[in-house]
Amino acid sequence: MKHLLSAADLDREGALALLDVAEQMAATQAREIKKLPTLRGRTVVNLFFEDSTRTRISFEAAAKRLSADVITFSAKGSSVSKGESLKDTALTLQAMGADAVVLRHSASGAAHRLAHAGWSRVGVLNAGDGTHEHPTQALLDAFTLRRRLRERSGGDLGGALDGARVAVVGDVLHSRVARSNVLLLRTLGADVTLVAPPTLLPVGVETWPCRTSWDLDAVLPEVDAVMVLRVQRERMGGGGFFPSAQEYARRFGLDGRRLRLLPEHALVMHPGPMNRGLEISAEAADSPRSTIVEQVSNGVAVRMAALYLLLAGEDAA
Amino acid sequence: MASARPVLEAPEISRVLTRIAHEILERNRGADDLVLLGIPTRGAHLARRVAERLVAAEPGAGPVEDLVGSLDVTMHRDDLRRHPVRALGRTDVPPRGVDDRVVVLVDDVLASGRTVRAALDALSDLGRPRAVRLAVLVDRGHRQLPIRADHVGKNLPTAAQESVQVLLEEVDGQDAVVISGPGESRPPASAGPTGESR
């Protein structure tokens, strides 16, 4: 693996291999000594052109647990024009001897550009590009889901998500998590239904490998997990996507009543940060079936796996 | 495959493992505080077999599960950057841990000693054993580090170009140790990393 840019980069075998590595990484994180020497001497640069707390910290923890050197560069609020600044930054990083770059950028396709423009030879991990993709989030969601469903069936770890039914609810239009999740869950054999008001579904969603619905109450009794997406009001400039927050919450929010529509075993997932009271109520977020905190700790294991697969072997170049 | 020759067959492997189990007990003066940690893939299966024999020989040794585990050393190897990235094996430590116990590392083939070096590092991340010993099915020589085994199934003088392969029922469907000359295709296809000496 040279880069991880999109959930679509992973075929079924590759995705399962990554999840299996993540499972072993998670086991090491339960020990007293959590640090491993695996990436000693390698340098990972966290390049964040956009706000992020949990993803940045998660990547930083993952790289440090594997003994890589971590340099964090936050360019929040930088007004330099994107293409140029990205290129200059890439050249600087190359000169500093970075082995991998974890990139968060507000422009969709930024990670792809950095990886394939020929500016440098470093490995690129997409940590969220605009409204496009966020593959490690999808991987940690799949990891969490796989673990929980396995526990329930009493099976061994490993295996895919064949036949699992997942609803992805909310602001699909602005969500990079939704696209990555649909692609990866499909690759792993799960059956995905997007639930959102028509105004919050992207153009071309009919070509995605999933179903769509506008009726959350009808979908919930059928699923093994419901992934609630954050309503990204900061990307909704002029508004007009839904009449009011109250109406959104009433039609698409996961509240106590909807929680009880779910099958007994179904999980409640959210990539965070949450708008409590909008897309998810406190009762749903704090219920025992919520995996929201678990998703955060699984995130470190999954990112360790991605860094391991990207950096531990001989140079692909 | 003309010169691929078996040097140990199933009955001999069985006898050798029984002897190693007794040697471990003798050296340790009983089964107190013993933990057997096998290095995946084949070392882990060998450790389990030795543990079963140990329990059979020493009824007080306790259930096999409390005695045996596996220790993956991949993330501590010094040659990661020389090969395509490797999958990780499982690390399973018995419930009582390794602190102040006598850990016997078990592997299929001892050659350069680099796997054992990695295992010692991996082990120190898990705790502080009172002592660490090494048991291997085959010692083929060619050491690159100052490491030796305490319990050896068979010493096998080999040429550097020859390859030694351990096949086990659990992984390969049969028990055998096979030497093949340089440039030979490998004996029966096997799943996962091979037991070939590295």
What is the topological layout?
The complex is a heterodimer of chains A (317) and B (198).
Chain A: H1 12-28, E1 43-48, H2 54-65, E2 69-74, H3 82-96, E3 100-105, H4 110-116, E4 123-129, H5 135-153, E5 165-169, H6 176-187, E6 191-195, E7 211-213, H7 216-219, E8 225-228, H8 245-252, H9 256-259, E9 267-269, H10 282-285, H11 292-311
Parallel strand pairs in A: 1-2, 1-3, 3-4, 5-6, 5-8, 6-7, 8-9
Chain B: E1 5-9, H1 10-28, E2 34-38, H2 42-57, E3 68-70, E4 102-110, H3 114-126, E5 131-139, E6 151-155, E7 163-167, H4 169-172, E8 176-180
Parallel strand pairs in B: 2-3, 2-4, 4-5, 5-6
Antiparallel strand pairs in B: 1-8, 7-8
Supply the key terms:
heterodimer; A: about 325 residues; alpha/beta; Rossmann fold; 2 domains; 5-stranded parallel β-sheet; 4-stranded parallel β-sheet; about 40% helix; globular; B: about 200 residues; 3-stranded antiparallel β-sheet; disordered C terminus
Describe the structure.
The complex is a heterodimer of chains A (317) and B (198). Helix content of chain A is 38%, strand content 14%. Chain A has 2 domains: 7-134 and 297-311, Aspartate/ornithine carbamoyltransferase (Rossmann fold), CATH 3.40.50; 135-291, Rossmann fold, CATH 3.40.50.1370. Chain A has a 5-stranded parallel beta sheet, covered by helices on one side. Chain A has a 4-stranded parallel beta sheet with strand order 2-1-3-4, with helices on both faces. In chain A, helix 2 links the parallel strand 1 (43-48) and strand 2. Chain A has 317 residues and is of the alpha/beta class. Chain A has helices spanning 12-28, 54-65, 82-96, 110-116, 135-153, 176-187, 216-219, 245-252, 256-259, 282-285, 292-311; strands at residues 43-48, 69-74, 100-105, 123-129, 165-169, 191-195, 211-213, 225-228, 267-269. Chain B has 198 residues and is an alpha/beta fold. Chain B has a single domain (11-156), classed as Rossmann fold (3-Layer(aba) Sandwich), CATH 3.40.50. Helix content of chain B is 26%, strand content 23%. Chain B contains 4 helices and 8 strands, in the order βαβαββαβββαβ. In chain B, the strands form 2 sheets. Chain B has a 5-stranded parallel beta sheet with strand order 3-2-4-5-6, with helices on both faces. Chain B has a 3-stranded antiparallel beta sheet with strand order 1-8-7. In chain B, helix 3 links the parallel strand 4 and strand 5. In chain B, helix 1 (10-28) packs across helix 2. Chain B is globular, with a radius of gyration of 16 Å. Chains A and B meet through helix 1 of A and helix 3 of B.
